[in-house]
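Team,

Forwarding the record for the chain on the shared tracking sheet. I've put the sequence and predicted structure together so nobody has to dig through attachments.
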Amino acid sequence: MAYYYPDSPIVDSPKLCQDIFSILESQFLFGSASPAAKPSSPVITGIGKVRILSIDGGSADLAASALVRLESSLRRLSDNPSATIPQFFDLAVGSGSGALLASLLFVNNLSAIDASQVISKARLDGSETENRFGRFFKRENKTIRKAFGETSLKDASKPLLIASYDLNTGAPFVFSRADAVESDGFDFRIGDVCEAVTCEGRKIKKVKSMDGQTNIRVVNVGASLNPTAIGITHVMHNKQEFPFVNGLEDLFVLSIGGDGARKSNLIKITRACEADLVDQSVAMAFGDNRKNSYVRIQGNEINGGTTVEDVLTETSVESVLFQGKKLMKETNDERLKWTAGELMKEQHKRLQSKIPTVFIKPSVTPSRTSSSSALTLTTVSTGSSESPRY
């Protein structure tokens, strides 16, 4: 039974709800030490866009070919024959075979064509599944071990995320360079991680951290097949490395998906649906910025190209939430060329700015346990040994 007390103060419920939400938003979304306090300085905008490269699991062949074309365009536009993909992106995120490709690019700093050759050798070294463009490898792969040696997550030149599934906790687990530079308990050998996330079917691989304190039982079950949302979430909440990101309008995302071939296996259909759902959700989240800030490269499921080159010459598709996909006017190859132009525009903008866009944590910090450790700045405009500006 409700009671009414005439002398009780009147509470403005909408205002109270708004105040509570503001506190929760400041405390948990942005990590503010004083959630109720408003920032004393204005929000800095217009610094530049953070560039994210996302590669789906099971799309290494298509992604490698797409990035070879993109890298070729970037070299031509920049008049730099040695330009590489990592120089034009601030973060890479991958799952499955996409994680292997991302690691070869951002840990070994290989060119796209060299990374593609390593993936081909790794496939020959392992057993194959019947998926044309997403074949996974056997549990132990000599090519992968030789490629990475003893390098670990913190050796990546840029922020790197690898999506996986941990059987110990029964939940997704993201291997992150940002965590690795903070604690050896979250630093893992890249070779072990890539072997684990590219294992066939139901094989399980145990991955230990560099200090031996953290054990992850990784199984490749298609978790986070499309890791784009993981990359976006990381950037939005990682205010140390990406302090000027206030919303999706401050991002530029290149997401590379699968070949678009029709699936007959139930598991493959489920994975494809999950990837499409993420694609549609991300596309709609960008709203009016979608055409200029979000690029998705994938097969259109209509022409059914038999090779990755066929897929790249297919008409591109755009996802619309709850409405499926619609054909665009451009081909995938044309969209890659447009992407190269946008990346060059962003690069020129950064070179003219006095304020860096991204602050990357150094691989070695004075205190591994401190979240407020010093940061380093990087850029593609210099090859000097000093900490360059980005």
